Amino acid sequence: MNCSLPPRESIISCFVPVGPTGMGSYAIQSLANGLAQLIQKTKFIPTNVTNPSTSPDTISAVTQTISWVGITLGIFFLAFSTFWLLHAVATVVTRVPKTFNVGFWAFVFPMGVYTNAVCRLATDLDNEGFKVYGVICVVATTILCVGCALGTTYKAVWRGELFFAPGLEGWEEKQALGLNSEDEEKDQPSQESGDQSSSENASSATARSDGTFALPPRRKQTSSEA
Hints:
The protein is mostly helical.
């Protein structure tokens, strides 16, 4: 299966796949951490809800298992999201848009949830490397958000081009040309039928002595034909 890149003015949409995987990583880690805290607080596991007599060691083992399962799945989804992030950055670098448009907001949500996933993982693992990477992502996301807000304000207030849709340049002209071509195709059969009828009349005409032509008399309709 072959596919091509989006147009230059909408190339920022390549960042969209970063969002679902980044949000999935953050959500799985948060849910696992919340469930582990709930079990640790209430001192029960789902198989023994009515009589929470489970030993503290079992409770600790269950909470640790849930936490590590969430962290493992979070790392998997974060790695998948990082792949899409690198792919999007490389794509945008090769086809930088010429002007700002409303499609640039495709930066903000994917980078925001990606940053949440990195910061959540840094907190769960208490890892300095992930903490530094999280700070870098926070700064980059803030710059992108502020830049998109300023660009949108400039385009909307100063230029009045906020709702310019990239990739639809000349759509109205193409639509008009399409309608005109359809009208011409509809008119063409009627013209052909008129030309055909006129040629038939000309062929059936008889020449007079004075150089004029006379059409043959119309045949009367009989009662059987009626």
